[in-house]
Amino acid sequence: MANSLSGRFLILTIIFVMIAEIFIFVPSVARFREDYLLARLERAQIASLAVEVDAMISPALEAELLENAEIYNVVLRRDQIRQLALSSKLPAPVAATYDMRAPSGFTLVADALRTLVQPEERIIRVIGHPVRDGGQLIEITMDERPMQLAMRDYGRNILILSAFISVMTAGLLFLAVQILLVRPIKGVVAHMQSYAKAPEDARQIITPRASLRELRDAEVALQTMQTQLTTALRQKERLAQLGGAVAKVSHDLRNIMTSAQLFTDRIGGSDDPLVKRMAPKLVNSITRAVNLCETTLAFGRVDEPAPALTRVNLSRIVEDVVDSERLAAGDYPLSFAEDIPATMTLRADGEQLYRVIFNLVRNARQAIMATGVPGEIGLRADEDELVWRLIIRDTGPGMPQKAREHLFQPFQGGVRKGGAGLGLVIAADLVRGHGGRLELQESSAEGTTFVIQLPKADLALADAVQ
User: Which residues form a coiled coil (predicted)?
Assistant: First the structure.
């Protein structure tokens, strides 16, 4: 119970109530003692009136008056004259004197605590003001023990009442916490446990019902988190299914392309000049398609091969990409501008670099052709001591804001209607595999510019170039 919220709340409530009762107990006992002594002074004054009526009272009557007032002596001061009104033999010397005429609160509390813990019986002297202008001063001597016993009984009753109030208060607060906090929290926990068993089931998502604002905020936050997680799990499952389907398609497509490659080898022996010129490009395209199928199968196994770094001529790769895209553009008024040094040699995987450039140029061509107006795609390369740099620029309509926000996220950064948004993701992954970086430099109504940077050193570009 001590480890539960309601249990700890119950214990703390009892402790705090008892502390509050202690602050009430001490002043109450001090006030009880003050009232007790003032009552004895008043009784003594009333008893002394018998002397004023008859100065020659009998010893028996005097003893009876003192016994009824529970005192030993009464001294009155009137008209600056001190008069012993009633007296009897003291059983012991006076041990302490208390002045009740104008005591401070601290003095009353301190005297009350000393009286409570006093182990011995004592005779005390008490000084006060007579009531109803009965003189300047009244002084009595009395036994302290009866007052001490009365104070202890009073204090015991207060403690018992305080304990009862503490238990009742704590019990009511315990029930309130159970109803208002613990049960709703247990309900939220039960929802979380139920959701954890089947997070894909949207019926397990919590519906906020709490009336307390803080608890309702927690339920709303939990609902948002569960909704996002369920959506992510569904998307993950669909991606897994799609990955399996792509792997199967790639497997079959690889076999088809392998067969096509065999037929292309025979076409290469033709005497037709056009066939001789186009056959090598067809062979290269089919070879790349076969390699792409192999890579897709490897990606489906979460095993994208590391780039096989060799010395490759960038202008030849760009030329192959541009020739392929010119054929794809057909008669559309689209021009290509190449500014690639003929001798620029990069340390990269030629096939992977071709895929990166091809993805970017194809996206640019499709964006321009979608507008229906003439356009241009420019490819320019340069280098410095640290990196090789390839800039691909087009005069297309630019990328939508949503596409720019999710540019390198699968299935979210697509620009074309019906596009999956995988081309840039694959390109960025391949560039990162080289230790490089693919960046969107600019995208506006005047066009889009991408920059590919590949490091010359063995360090990753993120560390080498800032």
Answer: 215-242
CA 121/CA 123 separation, integer angstroms: 7
**Side-chain-facing half-sphere of 121: CA atoms under 13 Å:** 8
Q: Which helix (H) or strand (E) holds 288?
A: helix 273-300
Residue 305 has pLDDT above 70, yes or no: no
Task: Name which of 39-43, 202-206, 275-279, 431-435 the model is least confident about.
Answer: 275-279
Helix (H, G, I), strand (E, B) or coil at 58: coil
Q: What is residue 464's predicted lDDT score, i.e. its pLDDT?
A: 38
pLDDT at 303: 46
CA-derived radius of gyration, the chain: 50
Q: Please give the helix or strand (H or E) that residue 248 lies within, else none.
A: helix 213-267
Instruction: Give the full edge-to-edge strand order of the sheet including 81-86.
Output: 81-86, 73-78, 137-143, 123-128, 94-99
Please give the full DSSP string across 250-285, using - where no structure is assigned: HHHHHHHHHHHHHHHHHHTT---HHHHHHHHHHHHH
Q: Which long-range contacts (CB under 8 A, 24 or more apart) does 237-243 make?
A: 237/200, 239/410, 239/411, 243/300
**What is the distance between the alpha carbons of residues 31 and 155, in angstroms, rounded to a whole number?**
11
- 389: β partners: 382, 453
pTM of the model: 0.44
Cα distance between the two ends of the chain? 58
Residues 333-361 pLDDT 10s: 999 999 999 999 999 999 999 999 998 99
The average pLDDT across 380-401 equals 92
Question: Which CA distances in Å does 135 have to 13, 38, 44, 79, 85?
Answer: 52, 15, 13, 7, 12
Q: Report the pLDDT value the prediction gives residue 462, as an integer from 0 to 100.
A: 46
In sequence order, what are the residues at sequence separation of 6 or more whose Cβ sits closer than 8 angstroms to the Cβ of residue 136? 77, 78, 80, 130
- The pLDDT tens digits for 256-284 are 666 666 666 666 666 677 766 777 777 67
Phi, psi of 454 (to 5 degrees): -120, 130
What is the Cα–Cα distance from 348 to 455, expressed in whole angstroms? Answer: 10
| CA atoms of 138 and 236, how far apart (whole Å) | 96
